[in-house]
């Protein structure tokens, strides 16, 4: 083989590895997004409204989230069916729905909104941390992002040692660069 052929083979091998790495990265990001949406978002929403720390109570569902939590972090018992007055419901049914139906639906939409907000915040935070780490190009001081408030998502990432606060400024957060620590 000539040196030119060896170089072309090496280049094609590197390009193939780059494509595989990009495919793996996008697959992992999709899996992370689905994990956040399906499992983690409701735990973060529960912690955000005063519930247990995300991970302590794994069986949080819509009913528990809607009932809420006490000041000590214990879950409240769901309230008895707070259905509107039967007489009003019958009038609403006769006239094809009305204001009573809209009020009834508001409680059902509060849980998905909390859950979706917690999931969106976590995905935004992880994406921002990853982008900042890539943009920093190895500089650990430039890898920090500013967090406006300490939320359940921020606490979760620091608790599982995926992110860490700046030693002197608790409003700044960075992703732990695992690859760099292994390479050093």
UniProtKB/TrEMBL annotation:
Region annotated Disordered, chain positions:
70-116
The record's keywords, sorted A to Z, are: Centromere, Chromosome, Coiled coil, Nucleus
Q: What's an example GO BP annotation here?
A: kinetochore assembly
InterPro entries noted in UniProt = Centromere_CenpK
The keyword Kinase is assigned to this record: no
What cellular component terms from Gene Ontology apply here? chromosome, centromeric region; nucleus
In terms of superkingdom, the source organism counts as Eukaryota
Q: Which stretches are tagged as biased composition: Basic and acidic residues?
A: 79-104
Entry's localization field: Chromosome, Centromere; Nucleus
Signal peptide range: none
Q: Which family does it belong to?
A: Belongs to the CENP-K/MCM22 family.
Please state what the protein is called: Uncharacterized protein
- In which organism is this protein found? Cryphonectria parasitica (strain ATCC 38755 / EP155)
